[in-house]
Amino acid sequence: MSVTNVISEIKKDFIFNLLLKGERVDGRTFDQYREISIERDVIRKAEGSALVKLGSSQVLVGVKMQPGEPFQDSPNRGVIITNAELVPLASPSFEPGPPNEVGIELARVVDRGVRESKAVDLEALCIVPGKQVWIIFIDVHILDDCGNILDAASLGAIAALLSTKVPASRFGLGEDYILPIRDIPIATTAIEFNDVLMFDPGVDEEAIANTKLTIISTINGNICGSQKSGTGMLKPEQVYRIIDIACEKAKEIREKFLEA
Amino acid sequence: MDETDISFFKDGLRLDGRRADQLRPVKIEVGVLARADGSCYIEMGGNKVIAAVYGPREVHPRHLQEATRAIVRYRYNMASFSVEERKRPGPDRRSHELSKVSREALEPVIMTSFFPRSVIDVFVEVLQADAGTRTAGINAAAVALADAGIPMKSMISSCAAGKVADTIVLDPMKEEDNFGQADLPIAMTPNGDITLLQMDGSLTPDEFHRAVEMAMNGARDIYELQRLALVKKYSQMVELPGREEVHVCD
Prior knowledge:
The complex is a heterodimer of chains A (about 260) and B (about 250).
Chain A: H1 9-20, E1 36-40, E2 48-54, E3 57-68, E4 79-85, H2 101-116, E5 126-128, E6 132-144, H3 149-162, E7 165-166, E8 177-178, E9 186-193, E10 196-199, H4 203-208, E11 211-217, E12 223-229, H5 236-258
Parallel strand pairs in A: 4-6
Antiparallel strand pairs in A: 1-2, 2-3, 3-6, 5-6, 7-8, 9-10, 9-11, 11-12
Helix pairs in contact in A: 2-3
Chain B: E1 9-10, E2 13-14, E3 26-30, E4 38-44, E5 47-58, E6 71-78, H1 93-106, E7 118-128, H2 133-147, E8 157-164, E9 167-170, H3 174-179, E10 182-188, E11 194-203, H4 205-234, E12 237-238, E13 246-247
Parallel strand pairs in B: 6-7
Antiparallel strand pairs in B: 1-2, 3-4, 4-5, 5-7, 8-9, 8-10, 10-11, 12-13
Helix pairs in contact in B: 1-2, 2-4
């Protein structure tokens, strides 16, 4: 509950006054993302990995796979398990210990994007129906929280999956092969403050706003997940405005970084 | 979320005989628990949910205190027998997330600055689950807060819309939730300010729009029921010692 960042009143005023003039602290426009870089296969021991930098925010996502038992209600489908670690080296407000609700929410929204977009063909991950399937562990490691780690984590997850090789030979299950990916879900997050909608909020911007909306969209422009977070309210018109920009931004990011 | 061969509509009506834009039956009772400061029992279709509010009261552990306002805690908990396959007791990741978003759905209307250094605890127990437990929980919690006399800027009402067989439907039931194409729960004030918005599945931007609108209409209907339930409890005739009968409220 205490993972909110505290910022000084004077900084708050500064950001607010800039905002009234239509400006942001780092000179971006309201719907402009910070510079994005994605480095894949940074961890050799992982089946797939990606280091995402969103401005100065850094998130490392690793994918591990191993055979295991399927869930009883889906005997022929692989399993995805998503976890997020908000390790204390990433922010003065993160503390050691079991994941708190912020970490759990982050992991579940990243999971929602991968799952609901059906990016991974889970049926193709069945080894022995009812007995053995591939389990995919998506582990999100936040390294530096300079704001909007959710978009960075979600981007890292799909980038890591796109570079994942199924380690079949290690388990005597034939040759390794590339994990087939069918969709590229992209999460885009905006904060609302004084009826201004700001995409890709920095850490100070996150601290002044109390409403955040994340929209996850797929290749065909559909929405496969969304999450409102924070103790504020949104007008329906604001929601629709965010959706319009979010789908456009997602398309740009996808085309630029992931559809190579 | 497979589109299996279940048919969701028969003669234009849903499996339980509802129209696409119709809520399940709702029953709301206020003040059902003696020990709590405020409480509410709600049934929405097959959901049976009870909410209790304690506070404002002292915060334990103390370091959670806020100098300028009350903190709000919300605990969403499912009884192990509330679902088909026994749920392991205690909080899991899902209930942590639901607790967080539900608290954030109510907090915007609670006047927390009236009670510095205190806590308002909201406990929600799902006794029987039938799709839509978070919305039922929020509806019950909002009424329980009012019953506890917590100052609020407005009521909060919550409802979900979904998509089944390419049709947008209001208040999905279990089958529609399990095998449908999307689920979109919202919570809002009677003015239409949205305080909770989640979605999973697949919707085009246009369908998203229509689903939000439909869920908001559902929430408006639920608001009327919440209001009636509160009026019903607080408009009873009371006898004050040494006076004649008075109406507390109309």
